[in-house]
Each structure stands twice: as C-alpha cells, then as structure tokens.
Amino acid sequence: MAATPTKADSLVERKPSADINHEKLVDKGGEMDKCVKEASIHEVPLTNYDDAEALSKEKQGPLATAEEIITHVIHVDDDPTLNPWTFRMFFIGIGLSAFGAVLQEIMYFKPQVVYVSVMFLTVLAQTMGTAMSTFIPRKGAIGRFLNPFPWNRKEHTAAVLMASAASVSALSTEALSVQKLWYGGYPNQVAGIFITLSSQLIGYGIAGMMRTVLVYPTSMLYPINLPITTVMETLHKPKAETKQRFKIFWLVFAAIFCWEWFPEYIFPLLSAVSVFCLIDRNNLVFTNLFGGSQGNEGMGFLSVCFDWNYIAGFGSPLWMPLQTLTNSFIGYMGGIILSMALYYGNVWRAMDFPFMSQLLYDQSSNTTNYVPYNEIAILNPDFTVNSTLLEQAGTPYLTATYVNYLITSNVGLTATIVHMLLWNYAEVSLGWAWMTLSNLKKLLDPSLYKFWRHTGVRSEQEKERLREDPSIDPHYKLMLDYDEVPSSWYFCVFLVSWITGLTCLYVMKSTLPWWGFIIATLFLATFMIFFGAQYAITGFGYNLQPIFQMFAGYMMPGRPLANMYFTTYTYNGLGQGFLLLRDLKLAQQNKLSPKATFVTQVVGCIMGALLNYVMMITIVENQATILKSAEGTNIWSGAQIQQFNTLAIAWSIAPKMFSIGARYQWVTVAYLVGFLAPLPFYIMHRYFPHQRFWSYINTAIILWYLGELFVGLNASLTSYYILGAFGQFYLRRYRPQWFVKWNYLISAALDGGTQVMVFLATFAVFGGSGNSVPFPAWAGNRVNNYDYCAYNALG
Q1: What was the pLDDT predicted at 152?
Q2: Where are the bilayer-spanning segments (predicted)?
Q3: How many whole angstroms separate alpha carbon 290 and alpha carbon 142?
Q4: Burial class (CB in 10 A: 0-12, 13-18, 19+), 283
Q5: How many CB atoms lie within 10 A of CB 579?
Q6: According to the model, what pLDDT value does residue 442 have?
Q7: Segments of the chain with pLDDT less than 50
Q8: In this structure, are residues 541 and 126 in contact, taking their beta carbons and an 8 Å threshold?
C-alpha cells in the first residue's frame, strides 16, 4: 500500500527537484530540434501540453532534451488521495482481462487476426467505469462499496494494466498446439497449464528486476505510451480545463469509426491505391514493386493507403520519433532496391519460387510450378530429423525476400548490441553494474528470499539521493512517496517460473535439454537489456523469433520440438517483458503506486495464461482436422501454427542450410557484419562531434528495415512515412503550438475509433462470429484483386 503523504501535498502540483529554465527549451537558431546530446539521448517525441499557447508565446522552437520533453508531455503532478483499490477496478480489470485473453486466443486460430490494443482497452475501461460511477447508487454500505467515489484516473490505469497484461496470445499455446496436432500429443494437461503460466511470467520477473535500468531513467521514454497518457489526462482532468480537447477527441473518434467502414468493408480499393497497377494491369514487375493490397503480393512502393488500420497497424506514425522514422525510411528504400535486385538477379534461384513467401520449397520447383517441401517426409517416428531421408529429399529452398529478411535481421541483431554499447553505454551498463562481489555474496543470504518480509519502504536518504539524480524521470520522483515493490518479489516470480518451466519441459517431452533451458534464460536476460533499451528509447522493436530459432537450430540440430520451446522461453519471454516494461512506464506516468501495478500485472498475466490455455484446448480438440488442413475455412485456420512448425523444422536442419559453405551462408556471416556496421558512423562522430548527421544514423534500425518487406500487406508504408513527416517534422518544427496540443490526442482518437470499428466488424460481417457477410463485388471491391495488380488477376 502507498505511504500516506500529507493532505496538503495531495492537492499541489509537484515539480521535479530542479526547476526547468524555459530559455533553454528552444532552438534559438531555428534549426531542427537537437534530440541527441553527447549521443546518449536519442530524439524523443513531444506531446500533450494543455497550455500550448504559453509555449508558442515563449519561442517557436521545439524542446531539446528528454527531461524538458517529458515534463511537457505529461503534467508533473500527483494526487495521492486517489484510490485504485476498489471493487470497481477489479471488476472492470478482471472482466476486460477475460475478454481480451479469450478474444486474442480465438483470433489466433482465425484466418483474420484482430489484435487487442491498449488504446481499445483504455476506451472500454473508461466507458465501463463512467457507467458504474453514474448508475450505481452511492447509498448504504453496499452502494459505497460498489461505487465509493467518481471513477478516477488511478482506477482507470490499474484496470487497463490488468487487461493489457492478459490480452495476449501465449506462444506456448502455439507450441502445445503443434505438439498435439503433429507430434503425438502431450501426456499431462497440468504440465500444459503450468508451462503456459511460467512462459508468460518468466519475462515479467526479469523485466521487473531491470526496471531501474529500463523504466526509471528519463531517456527510457516508451513513446508508444504518450498517446495513451494524453487520453488519460484528457479524460480525467476537470471538464472546464479540457472541454475543447475532449470534444475534438470524440469527434475524431466518431469520424474515423464511420470512415473505416469504407476501406475495410465497402471500398477496399482505398486501402491500396496503386496508380502504376491501374496503368498496367498485366505487368508482373509492377506487381512485385508497386502491389501490396494482398498478403505477399508486393512491396507497395508509392501505393497510397487511406486505411488507418493498416497505416498504424504496428504503431502510429504520429507518435514515432522522427529519428526512428528517418532511419526506418532509409532502410525501407534500401530494402526495395535489395529485394528487387535479388529476385531479378535470380540469386538463390529466386525466380523459381514466389517473390514473397515464408514456406519451404522443393528443389523441383520452377518458374511455373512452385512445389512445397514435404517436411514430414524427413522426420523419424520420434519427430527428430532423419539425416538419410534428408539427403534423399534434399535441403529445402527459401524465397530470396525471406533470405534477405533473415540476413538483415541477423546483421541488425549484432548491430543493435554494438550501437547500444557505443551510444547508450551509460544506460545499458546499469544492467550488469550490480554484479559486484559484495552483491553476488548477498545472493547467498537467506533473508533475500523471504520476500514476504520485504516492505519496500525507502529511507529518507535513499529518497533524497534519487531526487537529486538528474537521470531519473521527474515523474518517477513523485513515485518516491509510495512504497516500492522489492526486487525480491520480481525475483521470486522469475525463480518460481524458471523451476516450473524446467519441470514441465521434461514432463511434456519437449526434447529441450536442461542446458538448453539455461542458455535460453541467459539469452532472455541479456537481450532484455539491449533490445529493451532500444525499444524504450526509439519506439522500435525487433522481431527476434527467427534469430532465436536459428540459435536453437545450431545448438540442438534435428529437434524441431526443442526449437519451438526454446523460442517460447526466449522470443515470447522477451516480448512479454517488453510489454510489461511499457506498462510499468505507463503506470509511472499516471502515478499508480508500484504495489498496485505489481498486483494488477500479475493478476492479468495469470488470468491471460489460464484462459489462453483453456481456449487453445477447446479449439484444438474440436477443430483439429481443419487446423491441419492447408486451406482451412473462413472461420478457422491453422496457418499460424503450421508456419511455426515449418520454421522449426527448417531451423532444425540449419547447419545444412546456413553454415559456411552452405547455400544460405550469408545468413550466418551476417552476424559478423553487424558487429562492424555501426563503427564507421561512431568514429566519424568522434572526429566530427558537431556534425549531427553521424549521431543521427541508427544502423540497427536501417539494417532491420532492409528486410522488412518480406511478408504481408505493404501498401500502407508510403502513407505511413508521409503522415510521420507531416506530424513529427512539419508540425513539430513549423507549427509547434498545434503539434503540442493536438498531435498525440488525434493519434489516440484515430487508433481508438479504428480499433472499435475493426472489432465490431469482425463479429458483424468478417466471420468472427461464424458467419461472414461479404460486401457485394464492384469496381472498388474486387475480391483478391483490390489494387488491380497482375499477380492477383492471374492467380
């Protein structure tokens, strides 16, 4: 529970310990905003500043440092009298957790996947909380228990954090589904439940122990949170202060809700307008380069998208930092050139296979007949790879665009580690600075593990030291008035999850050896530091799944099941850790006490894991035949689990495919290249420290985006970068008073309205409820050929 501050303090806005000199907030020369200071502070976005006119009266330039930005992003104030521990919070939080967890797991087995977003949960929680506060009588003991006071911001934050932690699809259910359908089943239901729980919580335990590194510093901004916090402030400030902003939010929300019915359902051509395909509908080169309205159709170059669901599907361009946008755009353009060159240069027999695909292909394929590889034909009865059968069948082929993705991902992996060590050493080094001899000896102290005795009460000396630390987020300094969650609590979550996971892996006959599980844990902790910091600072997150599958393939060749469970405890644990770190920062920005945050996140994780497992068991038991079929139905599909199984088999024969001298040797050589990639720019920065260009380049992001266009719908990227440049460059530089007041609020409204529409449409017309209602075909709705490109017309 929180410590009890004085009542007078609760009503006063609290400032950071050092006052901000507003004369330093502007770029007096009118240059672009300087968001890299001594190469340790990356460019970060600016958002809600209610009194935007005050800023414009000072100067027109943007803010400079991370601390200056974060104190204008969100008000640096707190009201400790607001109580999150209410029946209403748990009722809404648990209800939304069940809703999100069940929906996400069901959608995983659908041909069309819908992702439950935090913005969607924020809007739902506000609607439910306001309704309960309004309609439940506040009379008598029961009334005061159910509705003690108006719905407040801390209740809202706690309910959203609980639901957010639950609204994921655990990767362990993917591995368990594959084992059930193709590998002889699993012998113990209890082990399946606990392996799902442990794989979801192990990343949370490690992430919680690293919060001093990845949450508390100002530079760990998590820009994806800024629109959500902006909405939280707007919804819970007195209506007189936010009347105009509140009105604009709901107008934009309603407008995008109505508009999205056109590109999503009535007029799908609007989601991918390709002028080049309209000019020449029979040109396959145009399809590969300019097409992108269908999955794996093309690269979508210069296509224009009017569908916010696709534009902001993995992050709105309006909140993405300009440095991240710029570097990703460089990689995006380079990736188009590289992919087209590989395919039309017929590298790795590229033209004998589809331009884009993630499947394995047989060597008998040619330009007119693509033959999928028969993975089952090379397996022993115990589902390990048979070397003799593999020699007879030959090693499979991959498409050139997919190999390009693997190469650039591996280059980007090591480049990220080197980049963070060179440019952000001060931040990431805290991840191992604690490993002194005295601290390691403390690990042998039995009192460390008596977590129930640890209260989290800080001494006044510790509070003062943190308040004087210039690197600590000013918002976190307000949190010092609350009792902290002891690190031993997070360590116990990790330890219990680790022991449970190791036990269940043997019971489940996963074929993952104990030493493989230990290595997976070491990878999880190490990557959490580097890639967690990258995600927190830039808003950019890697897809590390193929990298972990490659590691497992080399360490445990011939074991596809071991590959999947290794990936579950690395890739899934890392992704879960990132999400929970993001939500820890969201709690900090909304001043939710650490213990309330801990409870809501743990409850959400456990609920989500249990419901994921229950839904997986139900669906697999009842839809096994459909899930194993190649085509599926319009209601159920096993495409996701089939792909996971295919990749596991491919990586289990990695030495024959990717080692030095093998066909795809550059996939492995790429690791070495990545170590060198950031060095030239860092060296030039050291020699020319006043030239901003060298510090602005992030080779890790550029390299990853070189291979981004290997899958999916790509027609939205041109619109994505245009809108990003408009918001983060034009508005921020030339119309700062508009930017600080509206940019992030409108981004949040666009996200919320779109996600509500997609959710309703999924069940109303897209088959989520079992019956689809397709819109009649017309010129703007040509099924499987929305953009009129040649590929779909011929296919």
Answers
A1: 93
A2: 85-103, 115-136, 156-178, 190-207, 213-234, 246-262, 329-348, 402-426, 488-507, 514-537, 596-615, 666-684, 696-723, 744-766
A3: 62
A4: middle
A5: 22
A6: 65
A7: 1-60, 63-64, 792-795
A8: no
CA atoms within 13 A on the CB side of 489: 17
What is the pTM assigned to this prediction?
Answer: 0.79
- 3-state helix vs strand vs coil in the chain, percent to 5: 65, 0, 35
Q: Is residue 458 within 8 Å of residue 480, measured between CB atoms?
A: yes
| Residue 676 parent element (H or E) | helix 666-676
The string of pLDDT tens digits covering residues 265-292 is 999 999 889 999 989 888 899 999 998 8
Return the beta strands (E) in 489-594 as ranges: none
Cα dihedral 542→546→552→557 (10° resolution): -170
Residue 128, by phi and psi: left (phi above 0), alpha (psi -120 to 50) or beta? alpha
Amino acid at 386: N
Q: Are 340 and 385 in contact (CB under 8 A)?
A: no
Which residues, in sequence order, are bridge partners of residue 369? 366
Q: How far apart are CA 591 and CA 585, in angstroms?
A: 10
Compute the half-sphere exposure of residue 769: CA atoms within 13 Å on the CB side of its CA: 10
C-beta of residue 487 within 8 angstroms of C-beta of residue 516: no
Contacts of 65 (CB under 8 A, 6+ apart): 35, 37, 41
Q: Whole-angstrom Cα distance, residue 272 to residue 507? A: 49
Cα–Cα dist 619/112, whole Å: 16
Q: What is the pLDDT of residue 303?
A: 92
Beta bridge partners of 366: 369
**What is the chain's length?**
795
* Domain spans of the chain, in order of start: 87-219+424-637, 321-423+638-711
What are 281's two structure tokens? 């509908």
How many other C-beta atoms can be found within 10 angstroms of the C-beta atom of residue 158? 29
Helix (H, G, I), strand (E, B) or coil at 149: coil
Calpha distance 7→396 (Å, rounded): 70
Does the CA dihedral 427-428-430-436 come out positive or negative?
Answer: negative
The pLDDT value recorded for residue 13 is 34
Helices (H), 183-282: 189-209, 211-214, 226-236, 239-259, 261, 275-279
Q: How far apart are alpha carbons 366 and 590 in whole angstroms?
A: 58
Burial level of 644, CB count in 10 A (0-12/13-18/19+)? buried
pLDDT score, position 594: 92
Percent of the chain clearing pLDDT 70 (strictly above): 85
* d(C-alpha 69, C-alpha 62), whole Å: 9
Q: In whole angstroms, give the CA distance from residue 647 to residue 560.
A: 8
